Amino acid sequence: MAAAATANILPPLDEASPLAGFLRFGAIASVMGGLTFNLFLCFVNTRIMPMRDSHVMLMEMAIIGTALLVAMDRRAGLYLFLVIFVTYMLMLFTLRGASDLKAVRDILIPVIFYAMGSRLRDLRLADSLAVWSAIVVLFFAFFEYFLLDLYLEWFNVLGYYISKGTVTLTESYGATKGLFISGSRPEPRTILSFLGQHRVSSVFLEPVSMGNFGVIIFSWAMFRRGWSGRWFLFAAALTMVVLADARFGLFTCILIVLLSPFFKVIPRTFWLVTPFLLLALIAAYGFASGTSGGPNDLSGRIAVTAHILTELSLPVVLGVEATAQFTADSGLAYTLTKFGLFGFIALWAMFVFMPFRNARAWDFHSMMIVYLLLIMVISNSFFSIKTGALMWFMVGTVSAVDIPVIKSIWSKLLERAQSRAGQAVPSAERSRSAGSRA
Q1: Packing angle between helix 123-146 and helix 18-47, nearest 10 degrees?
Q2: In whole angstroms, what separates CA 70 from the centre of its chain?
Q3: CA distances from 28 to 120, 217, 387 (A)
Q4: How does pLDDT run across 9-48, given as a tens digit for each residue?
Q5: Which one of 76, 236, 272, 316 counts the least CB within 10 Å of its CB?
């Protein structure tokens, strides 16, 4: 994260140079690859040969490696962070007596894609990636929704997850072909019930990520005031949320809109302590209630997080002992068990106090803070490269570019109110003056 601190001292890239063209191609390939590689592997598994979890890891390594090639430059911050982080994780692995490469990969994604965005410093490229990502997602979303049988002939999602070991035949009730197990709600759809129980997954292969991606696209549209393409992104984001029946996505988009006038006045310290206050409050609730979980809604997910936290011992919370506890349903618990309490604090503090070249970058950054805070309560999916590649590239981009000042609708309404108040005061003074002369 510290790499952005030196972004403003680097000479701008010559867009006509071969190096700039290579870097742009690498950025496009890594971001779009992170978005679509699971769909590609699903196609290969369905039509050509079985895929294993090792194939997924190799693809992710290739994508992250490409992004790292683009991100590497003379800035010391990226290399310093990687050395410190890897050394810290090696210490934890030694204390636990077991390694966990997935934990290292979870942090490499935000750090490297952030550094890539801050090196290229190309707002137009971020805009283009947002638009083309949305187009690709919507194309396959409509393909899946309107031509489901044909879609499954080419992309057997359930078979792909069974092949790579994520889903067992017991969990799929013996089925080997179909959508992901969350691709259809057992209860009626929450958003536009007439669309049916099918929850569309598109290139993500599972609907949760599509809803999360909708939030990221919606936030970029909110941030890019004055850019004509934002209206397409608004429509695309809401379409993703609706087709995926993403209750979390809809709630988060609404909350971001409601909080947007206050982002400039909320101190960073508040955002710094919020996840740890949530940890303390949810854990206290878990100990007091003795809950063992709940239904698949917000209150139920909080109860699940509370139960998981009460099951974690102090050495596990500190990161010095491994646990077999399933924590994927709670981003808070997952992050604690992977990086320890002090690692969690350090990583979150670096994100919250990330430096910016332009004050307007704080708006988008605040939206992503809200997104991460909410999703950490219910899932660890924010670590996924499927949604994280574009998100962290955007965060890195806005941290290092000069962003034109365009007033938001809230600022315009406030100025209009102040203008009217200013006109009313002289009018009243003139009336009093005329009365005194009479």
Answers
A1: 20
A2: 21
A3: 11, 17, 14
A4: 455 565 667 788 899 999 999 999 999 999 999 999 999 9
A5: 76
Of residues 113, 134, 132, the one with CA closest to residue 395: 113
- Token readout for 142 is 């409509």
Query: Cα separation of 156 and 42, whole Å?
Result: 7
- Kindly report, residue by residue over 61-86, the tens digit of the pLDDT: 999 999 999 999 888 989 999 999 99
- Write the Ramachandran bin of 191: left for phi over 0, alpha for psi from -120 to 50, otherwise beta: beta
**Tokens 């403003």, residue?**
8
Taking the CA of residue 251 as centre, how many other CA atoms within 13 Å lie in the half-sphere pointing to its CB?
11
Q: Is the pTM of this model over 0.85?
A: yes
Largest CA distance in the chain: 97
**For residues 224 and 59, what is the distance between their CA atoms, to the nearest angstrom?**
32
Closest of 133, 363, 381 to residue 257, by C-alpha: 363
How far is residue 220's CA from residue 230's CA, in Å, rounded to a whole number? Answer: 8
Give the burial class of 298: count Cβ atoms within 10 A of its Cβ; 0-12 exposed, 13-18 middle, 19 or more buried.
middle
Determine phi and psi for 106, rounding to 5 degrees: -60, -35
